Amino acid sequence: MITLGTQGKNTFLEAVNVKSGANVLECYQCGKCVSTCPVSQYMDFPPREIMQMIKLGLRNECYMANSHWFCLTCSACSGRCPREIDIPAVMEAVRHLAIEENTINTSTKVKEIRKFHQIFLEMIKRYGRNYELRMMAEFNIRTRNLFKDMHLAPKALLKGKIPLGVKPLKSAKAIKRMYEIAEKLEKKK
Amino acid sequence: MARVGVFVCFCGANIADYVDVPQVVEEVKRIRDVKYAIEYKYMCSDPGQGMIRDAIVQYKLTSIVVAACSPRMHEKTFRKALSDAGMNPYLLEVANIREHSSWVHQKDKKAATEKAMDLCRMAVAKSIANEQLHEISVPVTKRALVIGGGIAGIQAALDIADARIPVVLVEKSPSIGGKMAQLDETFPTLDCSQCILTPKMVDVASHPYIELIPYAEVLELQGFVGNYKVKIKKKASYVNFKTCTGCGACWQKCPVKVPNEYNMGIDKRKAIYTPFPQAVPNKPVIDAEHCTMLLKGKCGICAKVCLPGAIDYKMEDEIIEREIGAVVVATGYDMWDPKPYEEYGVGRFKDIITSLEFERMVSANGPTNGVPVRPSDGKVPKNVVFIKCIGSRDEAKGIEYCSKICCMYTTKHTILLHHKVHDSHSYVFYMDIRAAGKGYEEFVKKAQVDTGATYLRGRVSKIYKKGDKLMVRGEDAQIGQVVEVEADLVVLATAVIAPKDNPDLARLLGISYDKYGYLSEAHPKLRPVETAKAGIFLAGCTQAPKDIPDTVSQASACAAKVCGLFSGDTMKKDPMVSTISNEYCSGCQNCVKVCPYGAIVTDEVPVGHGSKELRTVAKINEGVCQGCGSCVAICRSMAITLAGFTDPQIINEIVSI
Question: What is the pTM of this model?
Answer without folding.
Answer: 0.82
